[in-house]
Each structure stands twice: as C-alpha cells, then as structure tokens.
Amino acid sequence: MKNQNIVVVVLAVLAGMLLTVWGMFAVGDNMPRGVTEFSREAYDLHMIILWICVVIGVLVFGAMFVSIYLHRKSRGVEPAQFSHSTKAEVTWTIIPILILVVMAIPATRVLILMETTAGYEMDIKITGYQWKWEYEYLDEDIKFISSLDPASDAARQLNSGIDPATIDNYLLEVDNPLVIPTDTKIRFLITAGDVIHSWWVPELGWKRDAIPGLVNEAWTEVSEPGIYRGQCAELCGKDHGFMPVVVIAKPRAEYEQWVAQQKGLDTSGYAAAGGETEQATVN
Ligand SMILES: [Cu+2]
To answer: I want to staple 210 with a disulfide (CB 3.0 to 4.6 A). Which of 110, 111, 128, 153 is the partner?
Structure first.
C-alpha cells in the first residue's frame, strides 16, 4: 500500500469513529434526557462516560495507526527485541484503574439516588401480566388494567388490511394510561402475576423487572406534565411486543380531578383536565 493510501485509511477510520458519535446525536438516537431529576442525572453520566470513551478510543486507535504508519517495514524500521517492560505494564494497568475509579464515583452517586425511595408521597403497585399491566393506587383505592389500545390491536392482526402508518402511536398506545401527579415523589412497587416482565418508560430514566413472587421498588418525580410512552422490556411471551406503557403526568390539581373522577365523585372537569383517553375502571 502506498503511503498516501495508508494516511487516507487512518483518517477515514478516525473520521468514522467521530461520525458515529455525531450521528448518534444528529439522528436523535441517543438516550432521552428525560423528565425527572434521576433521568437527567443518568443522561449526564452517560454523556460524561461516552466522551471519556471517545477520547480513549481516539487516543488508542490514533496511537496504533500512527505507529503502524511511522514504523512500517518499507521505511526500514527494525522491530524492537525486548519481550518485557515492567514500566509499560505498570502504566497500562494504573491508568485504566484511575479512569475506572473516576467513572465509578459519579456512577455510584446516581445509583444511590436511584435506590433512595425514602420520602415518597404516594405508592403505585404495578403488576405485569401476559400481556397487560395492572395499576393499583394503594392510597386511593383505584385499580385498573392497562392494555394495548383497540386501534393498534386491530391493525396488528395478521391480514388485518389496516396500514399501521395510519394508526397514531401504533403499538405505543393503551386503553387506560397510568395517570400521575407532577412534582410528587411516587414509589412504584413492581411485580408480576405470571412470568417476568419489565416496566420501562425511557423518559423516566429507569426500567424495573416485574418478577412473580418478588416486589421491586423504584421511584419517580416527574417535573413536566406530558405523555410518556414505554414498553415491556423483558421478553415475556408471544405478545411481548404488544403491552406498551403510557404514563400521563398531570399537574396536581388536574390529577386530583382525575382521581375524583375515577372514584365516581366528580365527572365534570375530566375533559378539561385533558382526559383524552378512555376512563379507567374503579374497583
Ligand atoms: Cu412483558
């Protein structure tokens, strides 16, 4: 290979690495920043570690390509004859250890934050079933099943003749969404009634396995009202792809209205409160 060709290959590989990272942002394929303190912490951590990895990647591959180029046989370079270097081994052991320790400090802080459910203001029990979710507001005596919305369900059937592109939020819409108040620390108690599922809403920054016979804990405190979508994230059977999660975060007053409406106390303000989906059943 001619010298110019080698330079082109080296530059192409380095450019390809940087292009991959840039493309991740340009296409929006990165993890979402989310709408909770925890999701933002996790996102920031992910970005810090990503950039550390990019720098390491560029340095390591850069050094490798440069030395391949500068020390190639056609330049008459003689190979070194040593078989062991304590100095080099100590260096390439200590530097990665330091990097790992530096990355572990913020990661541990975020992990502890993730596990700290203390100070929660309300409890919601989530139970996964093939292939739906059950939500139980433990303080409110509200319980309902949330499953794939009928429009998506009809379109997904074999030979349905319905073009999925015509369905809004195809496979990401449910009949009864989980409604939560904003700016409230909510503890989720997550379990399953048959096989292992996993409750996942990317904007909240975490997912938790729903395991029969075991109750997992997680928490959230959503700062921005909105509709957040997710899916079951643990292969749980043939309809695993058809049990989405929809969370609607409403300001406290609108949430209270929704609760009253669920209990049949007051139905007046529901439409005004943004109740665009079907109402849930009350047990
Ligand atoms: Cu599942």
So the answer is: 128
Mean pLDDT computed over every residue of the chain: 88
- Per residue in 77-127, pLDDT tens? 888 888 889 999 999 999 999 999 998 999 999 999 999 999 999 999 999
Ligand 1 centroid – CA 248 distance (Å): 20
Helix axes 37-70, 3-26, angle to 10 degrees: 180
- pTM of the model as a whole: 0.78
Question: Separation of 167 CA from ligand 1 center, angstroms?
Answer: 22
Query: Which residues crowd ion ligand 1, with CB under 5 Å?
Result: 197, 232, 236, 240
CATH of domain 122-262: 2.60.40.420
Positions in the chain short of pLDDT 70: 1-3, 6, 265-283
Q: What share of the chain is helix, strand, coil (3-state, %, to 5)?
A: 40, 25, 35
Ligand 1 midpoint to CA 129 (Å): 7
CA within 13 Å, CB half, 75: 10
